[in-house]
Amino acid sequence: MDLGKAKSRGLDVDTQAYYMKQLLYRTGGNIPEELKQALQEEATKKQLAHYESAYAMFNKSWTRVVVPILKSNNVPPLDYAKYKAFTNEYIKKVLGRGKSHPTETKDQVLAKYEALKCDREVLEKIINEVGKVGEEEEEGEDYFYYYS
Fold first, then answer.
1. What is the pTM of this model?
2. Residue 148 above 60 pLDDT?
3. CATH of region 55-146
4. Which of 76, 99, 117, 133 is most buried, most CB within 10 Å of its CB?
């Protein structure tokens, strides 16, 4: 599919990546080593940006915010999976992060996990803390700040 057809179908196309792929295809992979290195570096940057925009937010919210809440409230480790699922669903469906838009309300998600025998008080604590978490890079290190 050419670039014009892809864009006319409403596909989100990275023009630079498209042209790089075409170059590889048309030259049969016989391109200078410097250009190959540049292509690999560009792909690595894009993969890292994708990771940081989606997965890192979910993982860091779990490890740095939710697990300490669960431990301080003496939640049995066997129930951690339910709270992890709740956290991920809350971030994605209520906060609308990770390349999606809000699709449910806080009360809808709370009701679903209360039906699974999760403690409402713990769920509320998770909501209060996860709603504040953001990440920012400073000198190659991640740290958390609070949204205003």
1. 0.57
2. no
3. 1.20.58
4. 133
